[in-house]
Design a protein that fits this description.
The protein is of the alpha+beta class. It is 23% helix and 33% strand. The strands form six sheets. A four-stranded antiparallel beta sheet has the order 4-5-6-7, with no helix packed on it. A four-stranded antiparallel beta sheet has the order 8-9-10-11, with no helix packed on it.
């Protein structure tokens, strides 16, 4: 009789080890995948954390800027509410000092007051007639008497021009051609003469000319450069470098040189005006507790005048940094609003001439802020 018993083989030790190894390999592979997934997720978390920190830093900076602007407006409002008699005395003092300026310093390097740099059209435009110390009658219509330049990189062409200055002694106009990394020089008739600075400058911005030197700020290098005057335009020295310590600069914009040779530089991101000697040695600061985003600085015999584009006002400081007065460029009357003041200058009568970027125009205000004339408004 046949047997129905099933014979069970004894497990093969070799097969058992092979299966064990396969299971271990699968397990190790899963662990490796999980580790890679974990690393990937940690990287994603880090990226989001970095973005969060970046947004947080930006928000905090904007809050700080807003607080500074509000504080500046508050200080202006407080000064506006001061006793009328005191304000009248200050005004009389300014009138007397301006009168002194006209008689003692009739006409030097302030003749660029009647020049307009048109950034959008990449041209230089001159309004009115530039004559021997005659004051312009702003009540009459001013027409363009000369224009030169167009967009481009060739000689006489511009790419995002910024500062402009005039040397009356040699009758030349200097233009900071920012994105072409150069300074271009023209005659009063608009004829191209020369260019310089390409090997030293990256983003030239402000420019100021004396009889012997040309001073230029560079927002990329966070520096101020000193060149010899025409015809060689050789680099003499430079100062600055990015930072907030004494002698360092952060986004320097407009600058001016006084009759003693001191150089005043508006620092857009350091919220101050830095003062250097003629040899570019640091002296002092002006306006650290008042300015929000200073864009340009000009000098009279009695004051350091600073354009603060964020606070929408012009501040008058003494040479040693004492705030004397402020003139709001927004809100004196409906047609006197300057939405984005970029550059400004002061004529021989103390009138304030401001380029209004957003309104495509030049606004001419009295020293007390009254609108006198508008030039070059964009056609509607």
């Amino acid at each position: 009789m046949a047997s129905n018993l099933v014979t069970v083989e004894k497990p093969n030790e070799t097969n058992f080890d092979k299966i064990k190894n396969q299971i271990e390999n699968i397990f190790n592979g899963l662990i490796h995948l999980l580790e890679k997934k974990k690393k990937y997720l940690l990287e994603i978390v880090k990226v989001h954390q970095d973005k969060y920190e970046g947004h947080r830093a930006t928000s905090l900076r904007r809050i700080k800027d807003l607080e500074r602007a509000q504080e500046a407006q508050k200080q202006i409002s407080l000064r506006e509410n001061e006793n009328d008699s005191i304000r009248g005395e200050v005004t009389e003092v300014f009138k007397r000092k301006i009168s002194t300026l006209r008689t003692k310093r009739p006409c030097d390097n302030l003749r660029f007051d009647y020049s307009l740099l048109s950034q959008l059209q990449n041209t230089i435009k001159l309004f009115g007639e530039v004559s021997e110390c005659e004051s312009i009658d702003y009540s009459s219509k001013q027409t363009v008497v000369m224009a030169t330049g167009k967009a481009g990189k060739l000689k006489g062409e511009f790419d995002n021009p910024r500062g402009i200055a005039v040397n009356e002694k040699i009758q030349q106009v200097f233009v900071a051609d920012r994105d072409n990394s150069r300074i271009q020089v023209f005659t009063f008739g608009g004829e191209f003469k020369s260019e310089f600075g390409k090997s030293n400058l990256k983003n030239p911005y402000g420019i100021s000319v004396t009889t012997e030197h040309v001073f230029i700020t560079d927002t990329f290098h966070h520096s101020v450069f000193k060149f010899t005057s025409s015809p060689l335009f050789e680099l003499v020295s430079r100062a600055g470098g990015r930072g907030s310590s004494d002698g360092l600069l952060n986004r320097p914009h407009g600058l001016s040189v006084d009759t003693c040779g001191d150089v005043y530089i508006a620092e857009y991101w350091n919220y101050r005006v830095s003062v250097f000697t003629i040899n570019l040695n640091f002296i002092r600061y002006i306006g650290k507790d008042t300015l929000v985003y200073p864009k340009d600085v000009k000098l009279t015999q009695s004051a350091v005048v600073v354009l603060d584009c964020s606070a929408q006002c012009i501040h008058f400081f003494s040479r040693d940094g004492i705030l004397l007065n402020s003139c709001v460029t927004q809100g004196y009357q409906q047609h006197c609003v300057v939405h984005e003041p970029y550059f400004f200058c002061i004529d021989d009568s103390g009138n304030i001439i401001i380029s209004d970027k957003q309104n495509h125009s030049i606004k001419i205000l009295s020293h007390s802020g009254e609108l006198m004339q508008r030039l070059g408004e964009k056609e509607k």
